From TrEMBL, chains A, B:
<dbReference type="Pfam" id="PF08327">
    <property type="entry name" value="AHSA1"/>
</dbReference>
<dbReference type="InterPro" id="IPR013538">
    <property type="entry name" value="ASHA1/2-like_C"/>
</dbReference>
<comment type="similarity">
    <text>Belongs to the AHA1 family.</text>
</comment>
<feature type="domain" description="Activator of Hsp90 ATPase homologue 1/2-like C-terminal">
    <location>
        <begin position="24"/>
        <end position="155"/>
    </location>
</feature>
<protein>
    <submittedName>
        <fullName>SRPBCC family protein</fullName>
    </submittedName>
</protein>
<dbReference type="InterPro" id="IPR023393">
    <property type="entry name" value="START-like_dom_sf"/>
</dbReference>
């Protein structure tokens, strides 16, 4: 059984808030967000893993990755890391280039829990309530939930301590 | 007579929207936002201009500047440029390091107007309505308005075409 994604989209506010627990240590969950090889393995949505043009997980760094869909068409995501605090906190922008200038600001807080478990608490701000609702109605919640389930599988397959 | 800053803070929304016209061309107003020497001259709030530790006005670049107040105490601002489109558009994060992890996402659109004039349209998203309201009650609107008045003075003193 995987842990559920708990997602809240407050009415009239251009944001979502969510949390998700993991049966893995905070270090492992954080690494899966900042190591491009690991990140690619739980964020792939096509027949091949995403390709990273740039991935600089440090405060002031930037990233861009390209995913090919089942039809071979490529789409790209890019952003900047405003803050990276090892095993604690990420603050980054996110843009799907198919929606130019529609940029999300994403807060991710990583917390250790007893028993080698951890919690991810997220808050994403959208340019407007309308865009947030559009992304939600396009299945964003399911994509996030499926991604975290894949992250569970990934962490379960990685030798402890690696 | 300077042009007024028109600022709207919609109730219950964690954002401000504003616009300000300038009797100067869009190229000049944009340059004043992306040239650190010009930027320092209309954003100084102390006895000496701010000092730039880093200023990379390009998509994926970062910046940090330090201002000394009248009492000599230094405070720092930092962020990342998500998008820089020459003479058109800036999207950047902004953090006053005295409020750690309270980060604004700032959209700035530059539009040319007839007669060598221009308009800046801005939209800033805050982590919460509470922080937005706190910054507003601490005089953020006056600081912005004074800054744009200083920008007018600066542009009026710079030879045309420079």
């Amino acid at each position: 059984m995987s842990n559920p994604l708990v997602l809240d989209a407050p009415p009239g506010q251009p944001l979502i808030e969510y949390h998700r627990e993991f049966d893995f240590p905070v270090h492992s969950v954080f690494a899966a967000h900042t190591d491009p090889d690991l990140y690619a393995r739980w964020n792939s949505s096509g027949p091949t893993p995403p390709r990273f043009d740039l991935f600089e997980p440090r405060s002031g760094g930037a990233y861009r990755w390209v995913q090919a869909g089942d039809d071979g068409v490529e789409y790209a995501m890019r952003g900047v890391f405003h803050t990276v605090r090892q095993d604690e906190f990420l603050l980054q922008t996110f843009e799907f280039e198919g929606y130019p200038d529609v940029v999300t600001l994403e807060y991710s807080t990583f917390t250790g829990l007893p028993g080698g478990r951890s919690r991810l608490t997220g808050r994403s701000l959208y340019p407007s309530v309308e865009f947030r609702d559009e992304f939600l109605s396009n299945g964003m919640g399911d994509v996030m939930s499926d991604g975290y389930d894949q992250l569970d599988e990934l962490l379960g397959s990685v030798p402890a301590g690696s």
